[in-house]
Fold each of these.
Amino acid sequence: MSENEQAEPTLSIGELATRSGVSAEAIRYYERERVVPAAARGGPGRYRRYDEADVERLQFIRRARELGFSLDEVRELLALNDGSPSRPCTDVNRIARAHLAQVDEKLERLGALRAELDRVIGECAGVVPVADCRILGALSGGPASDR
Amino acid sequence: MSENEQAEPTLSIGELATRSGVSAEAIRYYERERVVPAAARGGPGRYRRYDEADVERLQFIRRARELGFSLDEVRELLALNDGSPSRPCTDVNRIARAHLAQVDEKLERLGALRAELDRVIGECAGVVPVADCRILGALSGGPASDR
DNA sequence: AGTACACCCTGTAGTGGCTACAAGGTCAAC
DNA sequence: GTTGACCTTGTAGCCACTACAGGGTGTACT
């Protein structure tokens, strides 16, 4: 923990992209949106330069995004991760549990939609004239034999 | 079926909105996007005028949208509904089943995400210091006790 | 005739989280 | 010195709307 700190920021945005699994354009977008701080500009040109800590930060963001956290939530999680290490992780749990509740809600809505769609499709053999199609019937008039 | 056809388009866009459950702004958007044909303009002014058939068409669109069909799919479904009534509804079924498959895929991905999120949250009691938080640990370093 | 007020019009900007360019600048190798 | 891979900023697009701004119109009532 005390000797794997590297000396200089030497990675280009393309290398950071490869190593973190986040596209260079997304990284620039995160900088614009202040999800990550503005990168140092090194070398003779004005290119962005990154180090290993940036790789880890971007991987953190990628994993959080894969779990469905919004960029607002990611910003909060990063702030907590970067903040004082001795504080209890109550807020981390609050954010994660609230997000889980949202995911559950979405799952429930999508499951209900799926069931309804399946029901509607199940009523139609698929070979009857359009005029008698139960799928179109359901869309036109509501439950089943309404038209 | 032969005598409930009304004579004139008399509804304003606001009345159509109320009766169809689709906002007036969404109706204008659908017209711009050619989901519905441009409305007739009646009266002394240049206001859009609608009839009962338009109410039904908008209800059709609303129900299809509630089932998660995209506007592209809605356009196709409307075309089939408006087309020759004796054609078999094969295409309707194809669209609906393809959409169901997409919904199933989304459900699967969301379910997997939910399980992973639940697992990550389950590892953290919520009262430990941020430095030891398993949620942040999972985001920073991968599976469980990696850091 | 005036006027208040609800409704309508078009057009534009914003949402989230990026991706996909265009048009140009920079760097290292050969 | 020149190729070619990379980098830069800035803008437009995705989806299906929503939310205005800034103005016009219809109707009811005085």
Amino acid sequence: MKEVRVRFAPSPTGDLHIGGVRTALFNWLYAKNKNGKFILRIENTDEVRSTETSTRVILDAMKWLELNWDEGPDKELPKYAPYYQMKRKELGIYKKYSNELVAKGFAYPCYCTHGEVDKLRKEAHANKFSPKYNGRCRNLTSEQRLQKKKEGKKLVVRFKMPKSGITILNDLVRGKVEFDNFLLDDFIIMKANGVPTYNFACVIDDYLMDITHVLRGDDHISNTPRQIQIYNALGWKVPEFAHMAMILGADGTRLSKRHGHISVLEYMKEGYLQEALINYLALLGWSTEDSQQMFNIEELIKKFSIERCVASPSIFDPGKLLWLNGKKIRSKTVGQIYELFIEWLKYTNNEKIIESWDRELLKKAIALEHDKIKLLKDIPLLVDFFFVKDVDYNDDAVKKTLLSEKSKNTIKFVLIASVDRLKNQQDFSSVALEKCIRDLTAEKGIKTWQVFHPIRVAVSGRTQGPSLFHMMELMGKDEVVRRLNVAVSKFFNFGGKNV
RNA sequence: GCUCCCAUCGUCUAGGGGUCUAGGACACAGGAUUUUCAAUCCUGCAACACGAGUUCAAAUCUCGUUGGGAGCGCCA
């Protein structure tokens, strides 16, 4: 059996987005599953829109996703290099095959200007045909060509599509798809600037790189018959094709900026885990027989297959991604989450957030909030109150829990009593603290929540947080007593202010 | 407009002629637990786009309709 070789071929004209990642992922999974090679090729033939920055961003995103390539930029195999199409263009690779096609009569120079082609297109449209170039330069004599050349006309090279018959695509996910050749026009394979077009470069490179399977989005399906015709003209074997359905936004249209985050980097910045994004994207357009939801990467590799990819498009659901991310985080140990968090701070240049934080205290705080973390960026919001000198009291929390008209006096009394008890508390473990406070409520005949809630707010400034006594244990006696005293004097010792 | 693709709960999907009163997951609602918010567990809500045909039998096969998507560039 021939070694499976698949590729992901992004064009560096922007960030790597969700749809691109899914395509990359499926190629990568297929390669790993078949013990084959995953190749990264940069299709930068759009000289206007391609940028080095974008190339960098895509490479970084691929690295963050851990979709490592066996061959590609920074990992060039002499046999197949280079992996940038513009570098290949410099080597004359495309020119060579373009000349061959012209020599064999499968392609021809065309001297039509943009304006002329536009006109033809409009005419075709008016005649209810698919817009198409009518092949007016197809049968130019060599004299006419010479004449055009003398006039200094720029030329492009067009491929001669058969005027009749059908082109058949046997797609791995869609089965047999037929295209009427008559409806396909003579498309350009070499632009006037000597750069190949996508449809041409793609075929040449896939062939030269020994690509065995082309897995890509189905927005490419109508390009496929053109590409198949090039393979045929050159006498090359056509690779296997598998067109995956697209990922759409909530409104059912193509995923775009207005559907929220679309760039992978934005998910990274939000604190999504690489593995959560991978797991979620694997579920879009692929499934196992038992509808398994959670996978680790090894399982995905083992279970992935093209046969189980669906042909219908799917809608991107940020809610499920978020759930999956929380699930993945919860499945990790505190140590792992801490490391991930530190890494995330570095990636996002947010290290200053925890600059003054005690790392051991941070780890323990993360442990307390372990089950509540959905995104890495949540962590500071969840535990920051442990590290502040002056508690940031939430207005609503204070109003509701500390200064409620009905029980203000009880609360003041309770807080002062608590300080008294806690000051003399030898054992500051959560268990002992709970007993201590419960005893207090029992003695004074107060409901537990009437004490628990005020203490929570007094000590943390908010109504939500970790389990109360664990939180107090972690803060330590001195800090708890200090914060309680601060709260009492701040909210209850200035009668005039808070009446 | 033309070509191609697609069609099961709101969403991702399982199912591929009888085992389907259609299964799982997210979301949503209710409950349990709890000092709060979560997490967790339980329960519930909720779908075969429509119409013909084939067949003893159709979510499943065929055709049509409708709806959605993609492509129709010297973009990829």
